[in-house]
Amino acid sequence: MAPLSTAVLTTLLVTTSLAQSTERVWSSVAWILYGDRTPLLSDNPTLTPLGAQQLLSQGTALRNRYLWKSTPVDSDSSGDNIDNNDLNDIAPIHAIERNAINNRQLKAMTTTDTYTLASAMAFFQGLYPPITQAISNATGGLQAATLANGTIINYPLDGYQYPHIQTVSRLFNPNSIYLDGSSHCPSFLQAMMNFSSESTPSSNLSSSSSFYASLYPRIFNSSSLPLNQLDFRQAYNIYDYASYQHTHNPALSDQFAEGELPRLRELASSEIRSRHGNLSLPIRSIAGRTLATQTRSLLLENIRSAGYTNKLNLMFTSFEPFMAFFALAKLDAGASRELFRELPYPGG
Ligand SMILES: *[C@@H]1O[C@H](CO)[C@@H](O)[C@H](O)[C@H]1NC(C)=O
Ligand SMILES: *[C@@H]1O[C@H](CO)[C@@H](O)[C@H](O)[C@H]1NC(C)=O
Ligand SMILES: *[C@@H]1O[C@H](CO)[C@@H](O)[C@H](O)[C@H]1NC(C)=O
Ligand SMILES: *[C@@H]1O[C@H](CO)[C@@H](O)[C@H](O)[C@H]1NC(C)=O
Ligand SMILES: *[C@@H]1O[C@H](CO)[C@@H](O)[C@H](O)[C@H]1NC(C)=O
Ligand SMILES: *[C@@H]1O[C@H](CO)[C@@H](O)[C@H](O)[C@H]1NC(C)=O
User: Which residues form the signal peptide (predicted)?
Assistant: First the structure.
């Protein structure tokens, strides 16, 4: 349940105030983490079938919440209150197409990482599943589906639907900062130069070194990580590799002693939180700042179009902006801090 609840809370950050004040949802912005993938240390990290299933479920969950087919809440005087604490509650977006995708109502952005783009596609398979004879004006209406002799033709694969997904390259598209503000930011990288001498990192570095060394012969001897790089500065990459082996490699999964994988995860969360969630310098949390800026812009676009465009906005990205935003918004110090001090789970 942990992965889902993280997703719920992050998805709802931006819809709460809209939904509660008027009980009509005009627009929603969701930040979505890619699913289970092969390790970053591998040649060509790629989404696994498990990862695709995670995203399909997440797309289905958002479909149930935002594209719900019941009476619109605004015409319901019986007090169908939207309780934003539970993704199972419905919050139908006003006048959104329920069955046939209308790309003008949506905005989906992803980085060019193949596993993130594939995650976006899997998510859409759940959000707008295949449907036959969904005659929508957005896809040309009945006329476009019908031949002159009267035969109606469906899209392939029993009515597969084609989402418009914008891929933004970190190298060539300045808008990529809205999905990933830190990885190509010279000032951020500069601020990372003394990372291992900062207070929390240096304490974690020394307290974890013997733990990492003890795992080397069992878990990392066949990885591309040499023993002298197996330390806290690589905590995320180490956890990422270990967690993949634990899930997918029968020879290694029983090499872990109780508590070892959770400790690796805790160290990885600490590394990412220290890098992106240390608020001493504004540049440290840049990934969260750009993500928040874009979120506001997307909602403004919906307002500017009088609710016609940007009904559902989906930002597919990596974990750094999440951790940076959790710190910026002080979620990592609030009532649910345990949840927000951890890395989000795949598909969250
Ligand atoms: C589709 O377009 C036709 C012709 O413009 C219009 O009469 C109809 O109301 C539209 N249907 C929907 C669901 O918007
Ligand atoms: C209509 O035209 C298509 C394409 O030429 C053909 O495959 C189909 O059998 C025709 N349908 C009828 C009812 O003649
Ligand atoms: C890193 O530390 C050195 C020496 O402690 C200092 O001169 C330098 O300004 C620091 N660099 C950054 C980016 O903080
Ligand atoms: C946060 O970053 C500053 C450098 O900007 C560093 O001096 C400080 O030790 C860091 N805080 C923690 C808790 O590591
Ligand atoms: C590496 O770990 C595997 C799995 O435990 C083990 O079978 C193998 O002997 C180890 N190799 C070395 C060089 O330690
Ligand atoms: C990292 O260091 C901080 C400060 O000493 C400590 O509170 C935290 O528990 C450490 N994290 C891990 C995973 O060891």
Answer: 1-19
What angle is formed at CA 305 by the lines to CA 163 and CA 77, rounded to 5 degrees? 90
Rounded-to-integer distance, Cα 268 and Cα 273, Å: 8
Nearest to 274 by CA among 347, 203, 210: 203
pLDDT at 14 over 60: no
- The Cα–Cα gap between 261 and 66 comes to 36
CB atoms within 10 A of CB 224: 12
In 3D, which of 9, 17, 8 has the Cα closest to residue 296? Answer: 17
Ligand 1, atom 1, residue with closest C-alpha = 137
Spatial CB neighbours of 191, under 8 Å, sequence gap ≥ 6: 281, 283, 284
Residue boundaries of the structural domains of the chain: 8-189+288-340, 199-276
- Relative to the alpha carbon of 199, which ligand is closest? 4
DSSP string, 172-236: T-GGGGGT-SSTT-HHHHHHTTTGGGSHHHHHHHHHHHHHHHHHIIIIITTSS--GGG-SGGGHH
8-189+288-340 domain in CATH 3.40.50?
Answer: yes
**245-266 residue pLDDT tens:** 999 999 999 999 999 999 999 9
- How much is the pTM? 0.87
Name which residue sits closest to atom 4 of ligand 5, judged by CA.
Answer: 218
Which DSSP string do the residues of 68-136 spell out, in sequence order?
A: --SS-GGG-TT-----TT-TTS--PBTT--SSS--GGGEEEEEES-HHHHHHHHHHHHHHS---TT---
Residue pLDDT, tens place only, 25-48? 999 999 999 999 999 998 899 999
